[in-house]
Fold these 3 entries.
Entry 1:
Amino acid sequence: MYRNEHPNPQFERDFYVCLNGKWEFEKGRGLTNVRLAGEIEVPFCPESELSGIGDKSFITDCTYSRLISVSEDDLKGRLVLHFGAVDYYCEVYVNGSFVTSHTGGYTAFEADIAPFANVGENRITVLVHDDVRENIPSGKQSKKDFSYGCFYTRSTGIWQTVWLERTPRKYIKSVKFQILPDMKSVRVNVSAEGCGDVYVKVFFGGREVGAASGNIDYRRSFDIALSEVRLWEVGKGNLYDVEITFGGDRVKSYFGLRTVSYNGRKFLINGKSVFQRLVLDQGYYEDGIYTAKHADRFKEDIRLSQSLGFNGARLHQKVFEQRYLYESDRAGYLVWGEFPNWGMKYDDLKALGTFVSQWSEVIEQYINHPSIITWCPLNEVWEDLDNEKIIRDMRFVEAAYAVTKTMDPSRPCVDASGGYHGNHTDVFDFHNYHLSDKTYEFIEDILKHDKLSMDKTYAPAAAQENVVYDGKLPLNASEYGGVSFGKDCVRERVREGEGWGYHSFETEEDFLNEYIKTTKAYLECEKLSGFCYTQLYDVEQEQNGLYLYTRKRKFSEKILKAIAECNLLVAAIEKA
């Protein structure tokens, strides 16, 4: 069995039964209480090699099933069936009885199956529908029979861990942490099903550093002073462990003591200026597509990034697993949390309801991660991906920002990364895939005139309701680079099925020279709060990463060292 670790260290109980491994599987909508003919390895999508299937055709409907053993003790309280993520719509049955359904391919959901289960063997069945050609968020999943451009293999059905846990009838529903202004205490917001006494203990390095208790009537907040103050910082993931006890239920969690904000153009962590040296990470794996074979792959990707001098990543067009964010939290690794909005029709406000329901779930489930320093609900909302004549509805962008700030006012929000922005955004960011010569012209316009010359980027030349940069908001170069290396890559993304980059160089020296010139252009601009290089590793035909898709080395150690030295140069805004 792969991936048997607990999937969410931010909300972990002692009783945990992993249901990953062999499940029965069939394409199509099957029956709900029968044995199925095929097999699949969960939690890997059927398109992946690790699933044991590797079927990359359109699988719009499929069925999963397996038997589980249930004891008398399991049925004394709640027996909760958890799914980390199932793409896209699914229905869950136990012994043929409908239990629950869920819409959205990127967030967790659960259901108490005790009322439907018996002592002994029980059959779980999951029916899935997923068609990326519909008006749904699907990120970079291809709408064609093959991967092309910057669209990759689809990921249908179960792609995160499935597990069981027991709880009493009265149980802890959620916990949220709020760092108080003195930076020496934390507000712990506990939500519970029922009434009774709740106990909260906070630890650092195994030592108890704070505690609170009291009667809870469904929800209660506790302000806890900390006897030891260790700030969460770049490269220093100082995490506090937390235990919450409510009757017979106990949950383990953690938090990081940090604040994020902007002061003018400067990005601040705990009130100190930090230049965001980010790299684009799309969360794809050559053998598991959306799902890493081992959780250690998360830690390794972060290590590879940090070894190149990056202090974080923009997690692009995908909601990453909670376990990845846990490793980011531990490493003091900065990330932008983004919604996979591609696939929705931005001109159609019917899609807005879909977006709001699913994006709000993301924020609710991921809000405690200190590594998330910026929310990015939308990416490149210029016009319809399939028809450039259909322009986005500005109200879609405005609503995305409003929902994000209502759900979480503690973090900056980039309303629509790369443009075109709406009338409300905390950061005005841009995407620029030109080489160094035109990039320097672009930066000159910013330095001398506080002007963004969008015609010099790969953004469309015009769009309805385009909001122009006002010269006051913080600026971030949130995509640049995208350069391929080697003779096998084409210089344009026009030939389907071939490796591509926005530009290509055949020698390491030429690649490095261009990398340093372009990156220095951003580092030397005192009006920029950060950059994000595209990208950490190749993804299928998009071969413009600093590593291969397998994460093996693409460049010599000498070149990698030079890239790291460039990235670590002091940025102009850090000197100001």
Note: Residues 455-464, 489-495 have pLDDT under 50 and may be disordered.
Entry 2:
Amino acid sequence: MSEVNLKPVDSSAEWGHLPTAAREEIDIFETELRRVQAGLVDEKIFTEFRLRHGVYGQRQDRVQMQRIKIPMGRMSADQLVALADIAEEYAVGVLHVTTRQDFQCHFVDIDDTPNLMRRLAAVGITTREACGNVIRNVTCCPCAGVCTDEAFDVAPHAHAMAYFMLRHSDAQNFGRKFKISYSGCSEHGCGLGRMHDIGAVARIRDGVEGFEVYVGGGLGSLPHQAKLYSEFMPADQMLPLAQAISRVFARLGEKKNRAKARMKFLIAKQGIDEFKRLVEEERERLPADPRWESELQLALEQLCDQPLKPPSRLDAAGSQTPQFAEWLELNVHPQLQDGYSMVDIYLPLGDITSLQARQLADVSRKYVKDTLRTTVDQNLLLQWVSNEDLPGLFGDLAEIGLAETGAGRLKDVVACPGTDSCKLGITASRGLAAHLRKEFGNGMSAIAHRSDLKIKISGCFNSCGQHHIADIGFFGSVQRKKNDTAPVFQVTLGGSTRNNAESYGLAVGKIPSQNVDKAIVRVTEFYNREKRGDETLSDVVARLGKTRVKQELAEFMELPTFEESPDFYRDIRQPWQYKRSIGVGECAGEVVDQAEFLLEDADRIHFESTLDLERDRFGDASAKAFEACKKAADALLFTKGLWLSDRYDTVEEFRRHFCDTDSFYKPFADNFLRTAQEGPSEDSERARLRVEEATLFIEAAQGVYSQATDF
């Protein structure tokens, strides 16, 4: 690379119209990009640097995913047009809405990212801290300010938090990411406060606005439900509180073991009372910051949404087509303000094309005044639609293919990218979601519009698709039969988005990809038959127990051999075999049979541990979770030539063959070794953690086994 290209970038000649701070920040990013390309910057350092600018590596070589922050999901028509333009010019012409109300563009050339960022900065959008070990996009109920159930409008408070903590020096030394959400009420799932590092739920006490504050929540591979930090925190104290929490997390949070570096693990280690003491101590030491007040005041002044048109009534006597009537019933919701409605725009798989985005911007300008919102369910929402305009809005949305019903219903499946683009993907979660969408229009149409159940799919155990808080959740895994590997999904039941993610599900069993649609139908039939009154599915599962649920799904869990059903060894929407068959002789075949038996034992014992957990038999649950892991370890050791009759020490041999050789995912291996040293626990939270850890250890063992070639 020539010397001139390594000079600090100065884009002021072409981009001088941008705010100076934004322009200089992007210039620094481009300078560092050129330096790493010249071999002058350590790749590891640059990786975190680019992540903090929203540039994320994809599964495919030499292309990136660009994540774009949309704080609180609020955007204008002009911003939507700019997003459409960059998706078309730099990516593949599709904008993807995420579960954090962001947008993502895939298959971006990293050399295009600086100008992409500048184009967005021109309309007030940043990609800064969309990824990386920082505070991610602050999410907020998309109905804030117009919801009939809210305590008060939380949007200004979320806005103040987002921009106060953006680039804040106290939030730059985390071991892992950090997530914040705001909810206007306690009963719904718009903000999902109880699965966040900081979850703020609106409360009014003695006429004062404030928040019920939760801390230490998170999904990932080992989900933790947030702990109650304060029953009532005055609204004007939220910014210093977040700053103090950030300082404690930055100082005491894990830095070396990334699998244990989220704040949930720090709180689990310290205990909520000690953590609260540390935060309050830190809060007392904080020097007063005028921005605590000024950011909130600025947000209160800026976020005063206004309607484009006066309130009105829908002419019920006017001609209504069946299509409009269905859309009106399912997609339209009354606002707090009389004469106006909110309108859901359903985006299957969270995708909207650049053309549709531009057309939607035009439609929104016709009916509303910059009140477009993204949602955590990967859809869009229009606020402040005057009721008499609803027929016209429906017609215009229908013309651009955005009037489909289904947002917030069973057919509205949330899914992470999976193997489409994610490096960690095990199965095609988006492929499964697309398949289900097709089935919801055909054989599953009778249940498509149910509002009492939600489906969420992750392509691996990391819960990017939020499967833990779904009524019916799935996460990608593998299962081996003889010498062939099939894509399967672990089913999780017992989760719920209600009451800000009130419960997390546990794994029930594995379903081959080809059987997932049938399993969903069976679960809905089971729920219809067994529910009492207003029970949720999680209530029914808790009452009847997981054994009963597993019996319902047993016929769909069986994996046939490749010879019997080759389709079971192809991922959804993929015509090729998921993993090629490994040629082995008879002796090796016997070895495979024994390993499969041990892995089956591991699955069985692990399921028993979940039953003990739901019966409050915490010591038994903890002991069986470890026993299940030990069986899975024995299965892998069998492939190394060790027989159970050799009476070897499973823990030590596993350490020697898989830990010392780095051939097993280290965080999960460390959990196994630690549990072996600590022994069973009667503590309820620790027992649940052991069961969750066992799920992951066994899944990892299946993965190692499916790839084994030395037996």
Note: The radius of gyration is 26 Å.
Entry 3:
Amino acid sequence: MKKRTYLLAILSFLATIGMVACVNEDDFDMDRVAETHIHPSLENNVIATEFKLSDFFSFESMADEENGVTVEFLKTNDDHDSIIMVLDKDMELLNEDFYSFQNDIEMDPVVLNNGTMDLTYIKTLPITPGVNDIITLVDWQDADAQVDALAPDIHGGERRLDSVVLQDGVMKIQVQALPMPINIQIRSNSLRDENHQYLDTVVLIPANSTEAILDFAGYGVDIYPLNDGSGNFYVDLQYKTFLDLSVVDQASLPNSCNFNFTLNFGDRWSIDLAYGKMGYNEFVLSDTVAISYFDDPGFKDLFDSNTVDLKSMTMEMRYRTNIGMDGHFDVSQMYAENRSGKRISLFQDHQPKLSIMKALSPTQPMESGFISNEELGGADVRALEILPTSVVYDGLFSVEDNPAAVSFVYPRRSYINLNVKTRIPIVCQINNMESVKNVSDFSFLQEEGGVGDYIDNAVLKFDLENNFPATIDLNIMIKDENNNVVDSLFETPLVISSANVDALGRVVSTSKEQKEKVLSNEKYQLLRNAKKIAVKAVLNSATATDGTRPHVLMQKEHTLKVKMGMKAQLDIHF
């Protein structure tokens, strides 16, 4: 009686889960219950899961921010996000000493020897207290400082300075100690402050003092050519010496004085900005972007050197400069290199040169927009098919005067910043790209004493949607308590057709399939006893009708949707 009640409870349960039964009414003859067999069928949803591209391919790990390697997702024509590795490199083409003008503009001290001066006549002059009586000791004299000619450029062309703006610099006036204050008046057409000429500046040297220092930081200095055939230049300077008798104690005046002094412009003046003719100048750039991802064993297992097609690789450049000279950057020596030392140039054979326009003014740098792949002549697609471990940006940068404008440079802070972006769409053949996804919510009617005890045979039904441009081998993995795989459900994996792709390897339509697999009682019991299960998917590029395996575009939205149900036939006897 207890078993009969239990079976009636099972029948009630089967009714509640939607079991479709094929039962003969005679089977319910209670007089023959020991011989009764019923064979109902039922359908049970087992698992539903989804694979994304990130489950197979850790594209985030391609990034290496320190080396300028990032990953972007750019919209393609079919409005999908394509994975694109970007080598984004900012480079300084110049060091901080663009020109060594701090050496080139060295000026020798100007020594002024005025000899012995008779001062006895001053003692006889009538002086009215409070009246500013002036007596000139030395009338206007030249004290020009000579600037040696600059060395010619590497082609023998002229280089010269027309004017400079000083970062710092001083002029020292050194005299013999005298018992009265001395006034020195300076006049110069070369020196100017805030666009005003340095004229009629009076320097007071107190009595018994030997030195006065003038600070010319921030001043402009015009430099004039000497008309003596030497090719040298000079800084214009005149001086005048006088006494203000209203502050002089005549009784303390000596009868004579040896009035000699020196104008010392310092060892060197530090130049912030220079104008003139700078000639032709060359600088070598050498910089490297390391690409660790292509050398990663996991990556090479998926994409070897014969399976990556980077025909859509593009390069872009942009620059920013504060130099008032036209420039050219020869990029023909840029190349990619792999672990074995194989090198491929980043560009085609015609050796492109990038023109760099001069800054508009010292206060208005030139900043270009992106110079396109086409303007650069096109990237050589073979360069990254060797799976490089580094991209080497060697190049020759040259600048020269623009004949229609005055050149200007900042000797210590000139810059040309170059940004190079190499975009690499991940277009490849796929080799055994594997992902195993654990499934925590599954139902194989595991409850002991439930309807699962009466299953006679079962069929697994799969509802599949594949958006990957690859065929997929699918299997169910059986795991133990420690998450170790102990068995697989199918000896031969279930093969799922690839999504349909166009000639460029882009997905144009999803593959939708329904498949069935007969499940033996042995395999069913294996599933019932499983502590954990996982779905294993292995991707391989599809083979076209002509036998070739097309290169496909990796897209962020690629998915595989897997729904698995079970249709079982029961054998319930009582």
Note: The mean pLDDT is 77.
